Amino acid sequence: MTTPEELPVLDPAEQRVLGSLLEKQVTVPASYPLTLNALRTACNQTSSREPVTDYDEQLVERVARGLKDRGLVRIVWADKGRRTLKYHQTLVEALDLADDERALLTVLLLRGPQAPGELRARTERLHPFADRGEVEQVLSRMAGRPAPLVRELERRAGERDRRWVHLLGATDDTPEPEPVDLGEDRDEQVRRSYSAVAATYADHLADELDDLPFESWLLRRVAEETGGEPVVEVGCGPGHVTAFLAAAGARASGLDLTPAMVEEARRRFPGGDYRVGDLRSLMRPADADGWAAVLAWYSLIHLAPAELPDAVAALVRPLRPGGRLVLALHAGSGTSTPDSWFDVPIEMTFVFHDPAHVRTVAERAGLVDVEWYHRGPVTARGETTERFYLLGRKPD
Question: Is residue 3 part of a domain?
């Protein structure tokens, strides 16, 4: 039986992946465990899903690997035919679920809050409930656990029956970080805007660390602690932070989504290693079992709060045991959408992140020894926002 400390907290994508695996294990056992493509199809099917989603394979793989790191999914090779990776849920073992509890939790993960009558009808292929009363008995049992799995919601106006909701993460009836509308084609907007300001941006920020003693100390500390093992800065921009790390003794490389920024970095720091890439698909270094440190130095500032768990999980995954994740962000809430930057027209949204939410995300990603620093703006440099820095260690 779980304890409150052990109860997993799942974001909506994690709920959908685990719910789909739970369902397909029972309804199509001959095809289970699921391939990545089958899991994506299961997540996106248009029946028995609320809301209907359109996840791509990259997202499903990233979520599934994050769940593996948390002990909720097992990735195995196909036992026959072509060597293919397959995905198997371990949530049943983690929560010690009986078959009737498993059936109800599956449908709650896939369709959100529901009344007992709805749950009975929608679990027919998963577990036979004799009547609505039996469903209510099982829900009460789940709610009475030391770490409750479900709870009953207040009846809404016009509703005949009260609905039940699972407690493994936010649903339509539980609070989430305030949504941020970043518009369509966000990555392309970011790439286009940074391309437009690349040279001017580099001119303005190339020597910024000369006036930032705290940040310089933090980066030197990272360089010293990593002891010559590989370090990567994701979202490196024009390369000045990566170059600072290298000068401090780190074996540092840089990765950025925008080719124009990588070109600036290579031009200004010709001895460095700078490449184009997406932080959300960061791989381990070719010559080591993982990164000694991954730095996201103001590179998560265009992600909505709800996107942070996936992004942080993607950065933690390729760390070596004992490796460090270092985050730098603008602290606060809401967004800023300027029309221009360095007098250049842009189309890009900057997101302010609540420090408490960032700390929670880091801890849920499995980081330990988490420490953080929160400072006000350096007005002499024209700063107007508070800054937040977080360090966490991947367990050995």
Answer: no
